[in-house]
Design brief:
The chain is an alpha/beta fold. It has ten helices and 23 strands. Strands 12, 14, 15, 16, 17, 18, 19, 20, 21 and 22 form a ten-stranded mixed sheet that branches. Strands 2, 4, 5, 7, 9 and 11 form a six-stranded mixed sheet that branches.
Length: 470
């Protein structure tokens, strides 16, 4: 949303400003001539190296197991002949940086770095940019995940009339190796989804639960519940609203969300109605398309991995106002489809309830093509092939549970194990909060049952939950 800022200026100031403008227009104003000889435009062909993000001197990367960065040679204008430069691993570049900046960064081991094409970059005559070369790096499981290491590069001119200034002759890649951090990727492919009511709980508490034998985190996907689809009466537009709790987590993602993502956990933004005319299942096609772009912008801004759609808590209006239609699965399908079209690389999850209980095809695309996860209502264990045609069984979350109220928690360990053996490899629970007074007596036993039923493993809870501190 855009906000206009108005500055209150006393009226007498405005009058004085206007008077001065009129006076200036009537007077002859003399200005001294500028000596343009003092400004020289360089005719030299200047070269420089950039990474895939356009950074010229420094890169920052994080990786798990292995990663890579692309580099390009650039010139200030088109070349008249082939220009060649090389990138080499050069520890002295880091030593010089540490001395200049009084830092003590350690070099990323050279034997863990591969520079493609022997580091050679060529700009062919008549061009301003080379093809890219890849610098790859991998882990040997000895580096600390807490420290940043540096891949130091020097850039040397080999041929051509290109000049690379001394400031442009090095590039430092600051690297964090996250390989040694425990992650959530279990061998059997089961995905555990936690839909957390973030008005009450800290999402970092998901780091407290792991499997004993697998040594993997229990939860794979965290839904921040929830943002709202709302209607602005004055501007007559549908928009996405984050309450103060949701917005605080997004604004402080480095503290609350990135540690989860560093461990492979996906972060989804829940979207639900908020007691006005806007709903997941009642937008006209054009309105849905516009709202989808706003959802994409939100996910882009806060590096979210997708959304979770839940059609609840909205008003029903008949007849439907302009920009809306009567609530229907067709309208809900259109919105989900438009959001998926806007960000096909992100997750679209829906709750099997209300207008999203079953979704029809959109523009010839079956529901299973634009919805990634179908999440059953509490305590229901039937397949969802009829609800979302084309969706893999592995992405159908059965036997969902409400941990705070105990809904669906009566499902047995053996039922969960049978569900897994039948190929249903997703499961959701709602309202996890280790700070609840009775957590050890109601929520924890349900999580232990999940660990045994889906993974034949024992749950380890470290007993150090994260309080809500905002």
């Amino acid at each position: 949303m855009k906000y206009n800022r108005f500055i209150n200026i006393p009226i007498f100031v405005v009058i004085l400003l206007l008077a001065s403008c009129f006076t200036a227009c009537e007077e002859n104003i003399e200005t001294s001539l500028i000596d343009e000889d003092a400004y020289v435009t360089s005719n030299e062909l200047l070269g420089y190296v950039t990474n895939q993000e356009g950074k010229r001197e420094v890169s920052n990367v994080e990786f798990r197991n292995e990663g890579s960065t692309f580099f390009y040679l650039n010139t200030s204008k088109k070349t008249t002949q082939d220009c060649v430069a090389t990138l080499i691993y050069d520890k002295t570049a880091l030593e010089a940086y540490n001395i200049k900046n009084q830092t003590s960064y350690k070099a990323f081991p050279e034997d863990l770095v591969i520079i493609e094409n022997n580091g050679s970059l060529t700009i062919n005559a008549g061009n301003k940019k080379s093809e890219g070369i890849k610098i790859s790096y991998h882990s040997d499981n000895t580096l600390s995940s807490e420290d940043s290491y540096v891949i130091p590069l020097s850039i040397n001119t080999k041929s051509g009339d290109m000049i690379i200034s001394s400031e442009e002759q090095t590039h430092l890649i600051f690297v964090k190796d996250l390989t040694s951090i425990i992650d959530c990727h279990k061998a059997n492919g089961v995905k555990i989804i936690s839909c957390m009511e973030v008005n009450d709980a800290n999402p970092l508490s998901h780091l407290c639960f792991k499997l004993k034998n697998n040594n993997k985190l229990l939860v794979d996907i965290v839904v921040l519940f929830a943002a709202n689809i709302k209607y602005d009466k004055e501007k007559q537009r549908v928009y996405l609203y984050n309450n103060p709790n949701v917005q605080y987590l997004l604004s402080n993602r480095e503290k609350y969300l990135k540690p989860l993502q560093d461990r492979g956990i996906k972060i989804l933004l829940g979207i639900v109605g908020d007691h006005d005319r806007a709903a997941v299942g009642n937008l006209a096609d054009a309105t849905a398309k516009v709202f989808a772009q706003e959802v994409k912008a939100m996910c882009d801004a806060y590096q979210l991995d997708g959304v979770f759609m839940d059609d609840e808590h909205s008003e029903v209006m008949h007849p439907a106002p302009n920009g809306f239609v009567d609530s229907s699965s067709k309208a809900a399908a259109r919105l989900c489809y438009e959001i998926k079209q806007a960000m096909p690389n992100r997750i679209m999850a829906v709750y099997v309830y209300s207008t999203t209980y079953s979704l029809p095809a959109v523009d010839g695309h079956k529901a299973g093509e634009y919805v990634d996860y179908g999440i059953h209502d509490y305590g229901r264990g039937t397949g969802l092939s009829g609800n979302y045609p084309g969706m893999p069984k592995a992405n159908m979350a059965l036997w969902s549970q409400e941990l705070n109220l105990g809904k669906g928690t009566e499902v047995t360990e053996e039922q969960l194990r049978q569900t897994r053996n039948e190929g249903y490899l997703s499961h959701m629970f709602f309202a996890l909060n280790p700070m609840n007074l009775y957590f050890n007596y109601d929520q924890l036993p349900t999580l232990e049952k999940i660990a045994k039923g889906y993974f034949d493993d024992e749950l380890v809870y470290d007993g150090k939950p994260y309080k809500k501190d905002w």
